[in-house]
Amino acid sequence: MTSEQFRLARLALGWTKRECAKRLGVHEKTIYRWERRSAPTETAAFLMQRLSR
Prior knowledge:
The protein is mainly alpha-helical. The protein has 4 helices and no strands.
């Protein structure tokens, strides 16, 4: 999952960065980093997929 894919998935779910962070159990700054500077980890992609079901 690329940073752009992660951001688009979050937006498709209608989640704010804050809500996404809370649901994934990470800090809001982590979401910012994943979307802007570095690609999300495989763990983040897995968690995002599980939570979106």
